[in-house]
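pasting for the record
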Amino acid sequence: MSADRKERPILFSAPMVRALLDGTKTQTRRVVKGLPPWEITEICYDAGGSGKWMPNGPAPSGTGMAAGHWRLCPYGQPGDRLWVRETFALSVIDPDGGSPQDDPENYDVIYRATDAPGGGWTDGEGNSIAAPWKPSIHMPRWTSRILLEIVSVRVERLNDCTEQDAIAEGISKTASGFWSVYGQADVDGTFSPRASYRALWESINGAGSWDTNPWVWVVEFRRVITDKGHW
């Protein structure tokens, strides 16, 4: 990895992990946080190529929009990489080995998105058993199996998401071939990818969160495959 390329962790849910592995998810939208407490009409990219963005809007008299309001995308810039955090467990290979941090070769990593659940550590005969699931936020770098490289970053309103963007978000289909509504409606599915993504968004962010139409970072990426298969 080049010296100027940065790596950052990013969390994904199990359905989105499966979409990443399938190659169907190439975008993610995340709410822009820390905006000024007044209406923002646009968020402009620095024409100087600094990678920074400036929120603009009708600020109350006397507040202004100082240079301090410029901000970088917290997920990185094109060329940077994101290593995926997901719910995981560790399965002991050598019960007499050291800790996972000191001797990772003595452990197998099990991923909830794709592997069967387990519990405990080892049985009385030292057979490998998966440990209890650990939240994605606690996943260390060495256990991550998915590495993404950022292709582009932009800022837009959530409702600007197009049908093609919705498909790139990794939405899934039902057994009947419709786009999923992720439990947000009493129907089998929808013909509209955008309606499906709206349902996915609200399943994560709560009912009505789509209608608030927040500003979002739109991060497009490609999956990086190396000689280790994942990073």
